[in-house]
């Protein structure tokens, strides 16, 4: 029966996590993905004949997937080979200015002391302690809560803890209390970009990301896309079906609740539960029909997009680690370009993920797989950058790498460039924004849509939904969506089991694990 069927739109991490959990409960689950492969933003690009991770590159908070797999009767370590990173990232400002952050707080403090002096090392230890307190205050009442509000957070954590999370100060201002050296403010301010935000606008709460990284950054054998394939394989083993290369055009509703989907080729799919692993702006923009449009709040300010160069290249002159950040000269100008002036930065910061390297920084023989990224404004639908703008951005970006000592040698056929307009085509109605709404101001984190929508039977998952962007957060959103769907199905089942006129009872369709 239709009410027993679950349709998942999108095979990103959020949709995959929801599909796995619902299939493990015995529900009839089908995932519809318009791309030819699962993963969503966790995608691979082929450059120079090699598959290269072209989406998220940092895996943290492994406990989220540990818990999701345990609920589905599996163990993460049986399906992925994970190695803890000893060096979190290597940072450079010039050929003579380099700083490694380590998984060990004390090792990082020692490195910072050598780099910027004893006061900076003390400031770093204080910063880490503050980040840990923020995380402790938020894990249960916010990260693990399906529908947090400022009131619920203050009530659960206490007003003192609420003030501890520093929601009213900007990240940049708060960092000034710990670091006089502007390079260190620049380094730790970059954590705001993990959520697609500016450190000059984002709340100091985002300093908790430092604690998340210190709790463990994991290198995934086979690449990050292996996570998506693992979730698909586990969901399929529990009965979920995947239809790849299939686009959904409408979410159908009858009598004020979900009744299925219409595919782009006209096929109608009946389903009583739909989980949309799409950006909430796509629903709000009407890309899935009028019923879905009215089911979600109006979108807020967009987060950052990016320009990326996925390449196979010879790298010389700079000892790359897995994660490397090369800083431009002026963060305020960079983020002003990105958010206020809505243009590619004149002095960008460049992130380089060297996917064939680990903690030992050993150089691969021959060309290696690299992802180079600069932040960009989310204007792929309003102001597509022309070739000259992208070429100028590339010139500035690779000139910075050269000033820091890194020389890259490649060929045009071994480089794939992705721009905000390309990300807009991949993820429509976003302008190329990669992290949902921007977390600017103290209220923004509470304004992300939660799993439940205004349309009964329709749920949201993915980086634009609570609790936010990033692999573990997207997986958590899928878990929230699955839990809310299961609770609503159980409630509906109880309703249908109540006595009907004449003393008869009506059972809902069998839903496996909900029985």
Automatic annotation (TrEMBL):
Tree of life domain: Bacteria
Molecular function as annotated in GO:
oxidoreductase activity, acting on the CH-CH group of donors
Q: Which InterPro entries match?
A: Amino_oxidase, carotdesatCrtD, Carotenoid/retinoid_OxRdtase, FAD/NAD-bd_sf, Phytoene_DH_bac_CS
Give the record's GO biological process terms. carotenoid biosynthetic process
Pathway assigned in UniProt: Carotenoid biosynthesis
Describe the family membership recorded for this protein in Swiss-Prot or TrEMBL: Belongs to the carotenoid/retinoid oxidoreductase family.
Q: What is this protein called?
A: Phytoene desaturase
Tell me what organism the protein belongs to.
Neoroseomonas oryzicola
